[in-house]
Amino acid sequence: MDLDDQANVSRLAEEKGTGEMIVILGQPDSNSAGLFAETVTRGDPTWAGPLAGVPLGLPVYHILEPEIKAQMDPALYQEHVGLMELSADVDDIIKWVKFYREGGEV
Amino acid sequence: MELKGKQVVAIGEREGVNGPSLKLLAESAGASVVFSVTQCFV
Amino acid sequence: MPDPAILASHYILAHGPDFVRYGSKPTREIESSPELLDQLTAALRPWEEVLAYPPNQTFIGNLTPDDLAAIPRPWTEHPVAGASAQGRFGRMIPQAALYGLMKLSDEFDLIAIDAALAAEARSALEGVFPHRLDRIVATPAGELDALIAAGSGMPLYHHGRTAGFLKAVHEQDASLDAHVLFENLACKATAVLAVAGVLAGRGLDPAAVDWLLNTGEEAVGDRYQRGGGSLSKAVGEVVGCINATGYDIKAFCSAPVHGLITAAAMVAAGLHEYVVVLGGGSQAKMGMKFRAHLRNGVPVMEDCLAGMAFIVGPDDGTGMRLRLDLTGRHPIGAGSSAQAIYQALVIDPLDRAGLKMTDIGRYAVEMHNPEITEPGDSGDVPRTNYRTLAAMAVFRGEIARDQMEEFTTRHGMPGFAPTQGHIPAGVPYLGHAQAAMHRGELQNAMIVAKGSLFLGRMTQLVDGVSFVVEPGSKTTS
Lengths: 106, 42, 477
Description:
A: mainly alpha, two-stranded parallel sheet, C: alpha/beta, Peroxisomal Thiolase, Chain A, domain 1, eleven-stranded mixed beta sheet, 14 strands, 36% helix, 18% strand
C-alpha cells in the first residue's frame, strides 16, 4: 500500500479508534486484495511503510463479498461493481481477504 | 458485519473498483466514509 | 484533406542498472536503509540477460506478442537464443550508450564523465546514433574529482564505479535539483534515440518534420513554472528537426494516445504534414517494485528506461490509418466506474460506427509486463483489462459467459512493456499492429489508454482516450 495512505490509515485509527472502523477494498485480483487486507490487519508485509509491525487488526471486507453487497443500493452496485463481479475471480479474492480478516495462519 | 453507522476506510484501485465508487456504495449502506483513496500501481 | 496515418513506430530500451538506485523508490528506501543498496545491486541483471529477456525482444519488435504468449513463464528463465539489440522497429542499448546520449543531449554542461566512460559510450553509439558523437567528451580526472569532492550534485555510477557527476544548478530551486535534472535528461536522451530511430527507419529527413509532440511524464521547468516547460523542441534540436517546433502534452499515462489523436487531427486539418509524437523514459519509476522483487527472489526487472516515437502523416498506404471518427474519450460527466470508463472509451466509438466489440481484431490496453507487477502484488494488469473488456462483451450479449477466456486470448495479448506509465499505455502494440496488417493478418485494432489524474490530488477523476487503426488505404485493396 502507498506509504502516504498507510500513514493516513494509521492516523485515522489513532484519532478515531478502531472500534467502529471498517476497511472496504476494491482490488480486481486476489494478490493485491490480499496485500491490502494483510496491511490493515497484521501490518505492512513489505516493511516499508508506517504500518510495518503495526497490527491494526481492522475488520476488512472486499466489495465483492455477499454480506457487503447485500447492504448496498442494488442499482448503484450493478453500475459500479457489476463488471468486476463478472470479470474477477470472486471466490479467490474473497478467500484471501477472509483469510487475513480471520487471522489465518500462513 | 453491519455497515450502517460504521466509519469506512475505502481503498479502491483504478483497474478494479475505485475510491469514489466505494465511497458512494458505502454511503448507500448508511456508513460514513472517513477516508477514500484509489491506488494506481503502475 | 488527407487521411491521417501512423506511418512508423519505434521503441527503444536503454539498460540502466546503475540508474535503478536513483529511481524514486530506491532513492528514498536506500536513504533510510543503506544495506538495501547491496541487495539491490546483487539482484540486477547483466546486459546479456536483459537483451535476451523475451518481453524486451517483443517490445523492440523481434518477437510478436503471440510469440511471447507461447513462451512459458517465468520469462526470466527462457532467454531468447541469438537475441539482437537491433529490433524490427526498435533497439536496445547498453548503459554506456545511455550515458553517451545524455552527454550529447546536455546543453548546459550538467554532466561530467570520465575518460573510460566517454570512450565506451562513443564506441557503443558508433553506427547506432548519427548525431553529435563529438560531444561525448571526458572531463579531466582532476576536475571531475574536485566536482565529486565538492559534492554539490550527484555521482553517476557505471558498473559500480563512480564514473561521472551531475552538477546541481541551483541549490535553492527544488525544480532544478540534481535528481530532477537527471530524470529530465534521461527522459530527453531516451526520446532522442527513439526519434532518431523512427526517422531513420522510415527514411524521413529530420528536416521534413513539421511538429513535435512530447508525451513523456517528466516535469521540465524551474521553480516559477514547475512542469510548465517542454522537451519537444529540446529533443528535435538534437536530431536535426530544424524545421519543426512543438509542445508537450501532459495527460499522465494517456498522453501518447492524446498526442497521436492530436497529431492525426493536425495532419487531417492540413495544418502540418509530418508530426512526430514522442516519449522518453521515466527515471523516477526505475526499481519502483524492487522491494517486492527482492522479497520474491526474482531479478529487479525495472532496469531499463524506455522510449518511443511515432510518425503521423498523410496516408500513403504504407502505414495505418488513424480513424478520427472512431476515437473514444472519457468525458468529465461520464462517471468513473469501470463500466462507465469502458462504455466511453470502447463502446461509444464502436456504436457510432455500428461495430461490435468482436469486430475489432486486437485491443491494446495497459501493456505492463506482468512478470514485473505480479511479485509486487499488483496482478496482471493487461489480463485484468482484457477480462473487463470480455465482461463488457457479455453484458452486451456479444459473447456468452463461457467465452470470456476465448475473447481474452483472441482479442488480447500478454503484457510486454516496462512499467513506465505512459510507455505501456496501449501504444506499444502499434509497431506490431502495423507489421500484422502488412502481413494481412489484422484488419483493425483499438488502442486504449487510461490516466490516473487523481495522483496529482487536484481531482478524483481518471482520464482515458482511444482510437482505432486500420490498414492504410492502398493495402486494403
